[in-house]
Each structure stands twice: as C-alpha cells, then as structure tokens.
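Cast an eye over my tokenised protein here and flag anything odd:

===
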Amino acid sequence: MDGSHIPILLLIGFAIVAGSLGGRLFQRLRIPQVVGYIVIGAILGKSGFRFIGDSEILGLLPFNFFALGIIGFLIGGELHRNVFKRHGRQLVRILAGESLGAFFVVAPLVGAALYLFTRNLSLALSFGLMLGAISAATAPAATVDVLWEYKTRGMLTTTVLAIVALDDALALLLYSLAASITTFLIGMGDSSILGSLGHVVYELGGAVILGGLAGLVLNRLVHKTHDKGKNLTSIIGVLSIVIGLSRWLEVDVILAAMALGMMLINLAPHRSRDTFGIIEKFSPPIYTLFFVFVGARLSFTGMSGWMWGIAVIYVVGRTIGKIMGANLGARWAGATVAVRKYLGLCLFSQAGVAIGLAILASMRFADITVGGVSLGNAIIMIVTATTFLVQIVGPPAVKLAVTRAGECGLNVTEEDLLQSYIIGDVMDASAPAFPAHTRVADLFCRIPDSKAMSFCVTDDKQRVVGIVTMEELKQCLAEPSMNDWMMAFDLMRPAPDQLQAGTSLPDALQHMQETGLECLPVVSAGDPATYIGLIERQAVMRKVTQEVWRRRKVADTGLLV
C-alpha cells in the first residue's frame, strides 16, 4: 500500500488516531504509551504496510523539528538554576561517565569485530570510532515522555532530564574528534581537529545564544498577559522562530529550544509555570504524531549477516557502556543510591541525533565496500535498526527504573489527585454525628475535639435526617440559657443529599458546586444507608493540597545527597 496519493491531512489524522489507540492499548498492558506509538508507526511505515512512505516522512520533516523543539522547551523548563547550583558538578561527572562509558565500550568492540571480518586495521578503527561516538547520544523524547506519563519526581528524574538534555552536546563533541581521527586513519576528507571543534562550538554555542535571546523576548511577551490563548500564540510563535532560525543557522534545534525554556523558567520561576502548563496540554497530539513517524521511518530491509552481527555488538556494548558508565559517574559524583543503580536504565533510547550523525558518518565511508555493501549505507542501516530496538526497549526500562526508585506519582498536581480519589479516601470518618434528641449544650461539649465545621443529625437507626452547621451553633451563643432545652433537631436543616463512599471525588465535587453545597454526609451502601462520615469541600481541597506537597517533599528530600 502506498500513501503517496493520500491527502496529508487525512494521513495526519489517521496517524494521530491510530497512534492514540496504540498508546492506550499498551498502557493497558502496563507498557509506556510511547512504545505503542512507535509500534503503530512501524506497522504503518517502511517496516510494515508502507501506508506512510518516504515522501510523507520527508514532507513532515519540519513538523518533526517542531516536536523536538517542544520537547527541548519543556526539558529546559525543568532545569532551574537551583538544580545546577546544587548538583552542577555531579551532573558533569555523571554526563562524562555515561557518554564516555558507551564510547569506550562500543568503539573497541565494533572495531575488533570489523577487523576480524576485513583484516583492515585502519578501516576497523575508523568504523569503531564512528559508531562509538554515535553510541554516546541519547534521545530525550521517549525518555521524557515516560517521565511525564508516570508523573515522576526526585533525584533520578532530575538527573535524567539534565543528562538527556546535555547528552547530545557531548556526543557531537565526541563525533567531531572521532571524525577528525578517522580522516587521518583512512586518508579521506580535509577536516582538522581544530576545524571540527570550531564547528561544534558554533553549533552548540549558537544554539544557547539563540535560545537565551528568544527567552528574553518571550518573557516580555507573556509578562503582563493573563489570557492563556494569547500566551499560547506567543509561545508557539517564538518557539517556531527559534526552531526555524536553528535550522537556517545550522545550530542544534533541541539545545536552542532548551535554552529558551531554561531562560524563561529562571527569569520568572512562578509566573512561567502557567506558560509551561499551556504547552504541556497542547503537546499530546504532537507527541503522538511524532513517535508514529519515528516508527514509520525505521526499516530493516537490506541488512546482511555481518551487519546484523555489528548491530548486536553495538546494542550490547552501548547498553553495558551506558549502565557501567552511569554507575561509575554517579559514584564519582557522590550521587544517591537511586541514581547509581537506575540511571543507566534510563539512557537506552536513541533517535534523531544518532541517525543524523550516522548520515554524516556514512559520507566518510560511501566509497568503501565490505562484502558488496557500502560501509556508508551499513552505518545508516545499523544505527536505524538498533534505534528501533532501543526505542522499544528504552521506555519500559525507564518505567522500571523510576518505579524501583520510588519516584512514580510524586509530581502529581491537585487535579491528578482529585481524579484518582473516591469519597472514602478523603471523607472525615471522625466527624461526629448526633442523635436528633441531643441537647445543644451537649453538642458544645463534644464539638471542640472535631475539625469538622458541620455535623450530621441522625435518627435512632443512624440514618441521616439533617445537618447542623457552625452558623446555627453561633446563633445559640447569644442565648446560652436556651442550650439546656434546645435539641439538635431544633437547629438542623434537612440534609439536601447524601453520598456513598465509593463515589468518585470529581463527581462529588462537581455535584456540590452545581448545588451550592459546602458539605454532604457519607453513608454506607447497605439498606438502611447509615452515617459513616462527612465530606466538606474546603477540607477536601486542603487535604488534597497537603498530599501534593507531601509527595513533592518526599521526592525533593532525595535531592539532598
């Protein structure tokens, strides 16, 4: 099947819907949704039915850069200067450990394997250096998607976000050094080490300067605007300009967008949270389409036996290098146990930067053949095939790591918690209920021990017949002599409604808002429905807010190494 004659909007819509369904299916299987997106893309793309072909992938290339820009922008929003003040030295050591670990394991293994096949030492060393440099790169998109999906927070999450944001910069540096050495080894090209390093400095430094300046502009645009629609327009406009200029000036897109996010979060930490929240709500369909097309472009056709062998060595070596390097770097940095044990599992994914470097590397080996296959094409096919594997394995590994580290669900919002609760989770089971014949004087003796602001009145069978609020009780203070003969029945107002403990909390709060009620009794599910507790809207919101701060405190405690 060929998708070349299908309208592009129809193709985009179909890809989003199919990817979304795939993501939901994989979530039900307790697998991160991003794996579902990629698998759907592989089924629709070059490895499957070819519903999405090369022309569609090429035509949507600007969209891919836009998606990467959003990812970089949101990563930058997590990198507050306090993180670097506290852990800057740690991050540098860990970054060096995991990147160099992959390089120094993959390069000799691949070089040795190719030497056994070709008996050409300079060619084998060059090939090993190229793949070693490429192995250092880590794709942030799939990793970050898992962290957001599972609402993670803690030292491991903070370290992962910083490492995947900076990882590609070090990979580019390693690639430039490897490319220069390769030029001397195989006698091709005219690049020098100094020239390569100069290009890297331009690409990375230019990205940081571009993103920083754009951050200053965006901060001014959203400074006094409280209209979310206008803010979204400004954000998307500035971000698109940054991405477009990055492509035009040939600087790193992700780093430029990350610098934009970092500048914004550090200029206005509190105000810009709403800005990033707008983008987070805007981004899900973009992520879905992006990962569907990541899967669609992956292909395994045309790979010979020796190439599969190199691919296996590459994946195994990179996995060992990342895990060991991250562990050693974390120990060197004095990081927490969670970071030492689990960081390596979060660094498997590879994608855009790795494939881009593979394309550059292939140009150096375009005219060299091994077993009838161009080494240039071999690099692209090896990196592409291994990219598919690590993109599938990487997200579950990230989930496993953050779960073992105990960081899942620690970055929840009040809205997230409300969606997860039922009435029984937040009701005040200790709020007393009084028989209708209870004297008001006795009520005053018992209510000081309760935090409730309202009290239910029950009949002889513990069925709720009414509610007494503090407003009614305050009126009795004016005539203390009446308290000895007035009863709860005299003060109560009829209970307008009642809830069962299994009712979802969002439904209950929505009902209370629509009816203007501040409190409702909670009753058992049996017959008769007897009183078991009380729910008060203000008390519920206070309890939810306290739980959000408790979870964040638990996560942030891990930041103190």
Notes: The radius of gyration is 30 Å. The first strand starts at residue 369 and ends at 370. The longest helix spans residues 81-118.
